[in-house]
Structure formats: C-alpha cells, structure tokens
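Reading group handout, session on sequence-to-structure problems. Before we discuss, look at one worked example. The prompt was deliberately terse, the way you'd type it at a terminal:

> structure SET domain-containing protein

The input record follows.
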Amino acid sequence: MLSEQSRMKQGSRLPAHSAGCRRLQSSCSHRYPILLSVLHLCTSFQQIHALHGVQDPYLALHIARMNIAANTAGVRIAPSPGKGMGVFALRQHTQEFVVGEYAGEFLSQRDIDARYENPLRTPGLWTPEDEWWYENRVKRGVGCTGAYIFKVDDDLYIDGEDCDTANWTRFLNHGEPNLRVKSLAKGLDGKPRVWFVALRDIEAGEELLWDYGESYWKEDDVVV
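And the output record:
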C-alpha cells in the first residue's frame, strides 16, 4: 500500500491474451453478457498493462478484475503519483457513505508471528502449513511483505496482499484522510468485517485516502 515497488512484487506468470480479446470482440453481443464481461476484463487488462505502465501481467490482470467491482462501487484503480496505484472516485460519494469493505486472508497472531516476524521458520512456530503457504505464494509470485495487514482484534488480522483473496480496497493509499475505517470482530454473518466510510463529501476524480496509523510505518519509511 506504501509504494510502487511493494505493488509490483506480485508475480509475472500470466501472459497477455490480446488475440483472445480480439476474437471475443468479434463474437460478443447483447445476447452474451458473460462474454461481454470477459471482454471488459480483457480491455481493462490491456489498458492497465499498456497505458498505466504496470509491466507485470499477473498484477495487471488482477487489477483489471478488481476494477470491474470497483467501477460498480463508483471508484477506479489508477496510478497515483509517487504511490504506485491508488483508488479514485468516479462519482460523488456523500459523507457517511460506505465506500467498500476490506477483504483478504484471515490470520491469527500465531500466523503473523510465524510468517512475518524474523527469522522465518522459527522452531516451534513454523509448521508444514506455513511452509505450504509460503511456497504457494512464491510459486504464484505473491509477496510476503506484510504491508497489507489490517488488525481487527487481538488475535485476528486480515491480510490483503494476495490478490486472489483481496479486492480493490487493498489499493487505498495513506494520506490526508477523506475516509475513516470501521471494524467488527464479528459481523452479522459471524465473520470479521472492515469497511471504509466517507468522512466528508468526496468529489469525482479525488483519490480516496485513509490514515494507516503510526504503527504501520517503519523508521526508514517516508510518509507521503
């Protein structure tokens, strides 16, 4: 969430399918909404990959997929100067409007200690499940930076680094906040819930920002 470098840590395993997009474009019609959705995804992928300078096809494809849901919520993922990618309003969001919910992998304090504290593979903490988690992320090119972790409760965290389980809210940047974050350890469905609410009226074109808090930053981090 902090820098372009951290955003580009995702893998580079998926190729661009421009030829497939052209084939879909020639065959899609209003009678095939699923194909139109695929065409939208392909077009978004090409725009993000080519126009926005995201060279990593794996990340570009995920951003394109997330942008479909983001557009429905009235926002879009786009480059943010000095911060990599960010989230921008497509329309006005009035004060107290719920903009979106944070999503990701649920982790316990033990998971955090084993997977993100140094050194890795600490005896007594590191398990075969942790090894599978780590190798699976490396295989898919997913980073293990810990920069997308949100603490919900003392023993409950949401990790939004893996694009397979996250959504567009992982690209919300730190800055002078126009959003505030709310959380519940147990929502109505019994699962943790973290959501973002507009602090004020947000106009179309504005970047959506929230305050990560002092605990997020390391001594050598430059807060922008």
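Points for discussion. First: Residues 114 and 123 are 9 Å apart (CA to CA). Second: The longest strand covers residues 75-80.
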